[in-house]
Specification:
Elements (H helix, E strand, L loop, with lengths): L7 H26 L6 H32 L6 H11 L9 H13 L17 H13 L1 H11 L3 H25 L1 H26 L16 E4 L3 H4 L6 H6 L8 H7 L1 H6 L3 E4 L3 H9 L3 H5 L14 H10 L6 H7 L1
Parallel strand pairs: 1-2
Helix pairs in contact: 1-2, 1-8, 2-4, 2-8, 5-8, 6-7, 7-8, 8-13
InterPro entries: FA_desaturase_dom (IPR005804)
Protein name: Fatty acid desaturase domain-containing protein
Organism: Strombidinopsis acuminata
Length: 333
């Protein structure tokens, strides 16, 4: 069944999710269809409990499972490979078929540059106002900008797929809300959509919050690595994000070794590495203006006698938060 036995944790996660959804979704719809009707507060609390349980137990792990399985198919059977993007994803707030086009094709091909609608280059990346504009593009305007991206890059087959997937998702939501139950549909699908798109927007913002404005085309200067954090154990080594952009097809179990083997390239590229924090931690520290605290997690990869002071690290981090100048954007295309 699996192409690579190292992906057994992904299969186990998928089976756990099936078990949870098989109980949770019918339960929420059942409570809302119960006669005589249960109190509105009871039904809303049940819906909230369902969403919180899914977020705590599965949201991050599912998103990263979807992520790596989209880059590197895990099943021999192509229908099984499509299940995550087309069947699982809507239960975690991602419209059918959107993720692979948005992330694997657009984000990685365009590499956080101009045609990437999730690019962070144009923003002052410690500004809440700029993040608000970014969230609007990432979470709301995606419905228009993804098809537009396909048109601009002549990806007509993908345009048909993405429009079909989005319309199928909307049609399913309308059908369930109209003919089954509105409140249950809101809790099982609409609220998870808002949560997922907001979390992914802040996640991508945080992953690409540091971009060297003088060298934005380099994979070693448009993101950073997070090491020695327990989050890597539950997100398939997602913290090695420079490694991922340098080699997106690399198996997730090989990332730590690749990082070690290519340490000199990281040093030469001025790459950032942090220890003991993950992307959301980094994003929160930056947005709350705590670069002084983040600097203490910085890992110096070069010779010990060349290690920068905390003040120098803060200065570098602050410089990498500025919008990339137009001249550098053109150079990076």
């Amino acid at each position: 069944m699996l192409k690579d036995q190292r992906d057994v944790p992904m299969l186990c996660l998928m089976l756990n999710i099936v078990e949870a959804l098989a109980i949770g979704v019918p339960l929420i719809y059942g409570l809302n269809l119960w006669q005589p009707p249960l109190p509105l507060l009871t039904r809303n609390l049940a819906g909230l409990a369902y969403v919180v349980t899914n977020v705590v137990l599965f949201q991050e792990r599912f998103t990263l499972c979807l992520h790596f399985a989209s880059h590197r198919a895990i099943f021999h059977n192509e229908m099984l490979n499509g299940i995550l993007n087309w069947a699982f994803a809507p239960f975690f707030g991602v419209p059918c078929g959107v993720y692979k086009l948005h992330h694997v094709i657009m984000h990685h091909v365009e590499n956080n540059h101009d045609l990437d609608i999730s690019s962070t280059e144009h923003y002052q990346r410690d500004s809440w106002a700029d993040f608000g504009r970014y969230w609007l593009h990432f979470a709301v305007l995606i419905w228009f900008e993804l098809p537009r991206y396909c048109a601009r890059t002549s990806r007509w087959t993908w345009m048909a797929k993405i429009i079909g997937g989005m319309l199928a998702w909307v049609a399913a939501m309308l059908f369930l809300a109209t003919y089954v139950n509105t409140l249950a549909t809101v809790w099982c699908f609409v609220v998870p959509h808002i949560v997922a798109m907001t979390a992914m927007a802040f996640g991508n913002w945080s992953q690409h919050i540091f971009v060297n404005p003088k060298d934005a085309q380099s994979n070693y200067a448009l993101t950073y690595n997070c090491i020695d954090t327990k989050v890597n154990q539950t997100t398939f080594n997602d913290g090695y994000h420079i490694v991922h952009h340098a080699n997106a097809r690399l198996h997730w179990t090989e990332m730590p070794q690749y990082f070690y083997d290519n340490k000199e390239k990281h040093i030469a590229g001025g790459a950032l590495t942090f220890r003991g924090v993950h992307f959301f931690d980094v994003g929160i520290l930056v947005m709350t203006k705590r670069l002084d605290k983040l600097a203490k997690h910085y890992v110096h990869l070069g010779p010990k006698d060349q290690a920068p002071s905390l003040e120098a690290i803060e200065e570098k981090l602050r410089a990498w938060l500025r919008p990339v100048p137009p001249a550098q954007e053109k150079k990076s295309k």
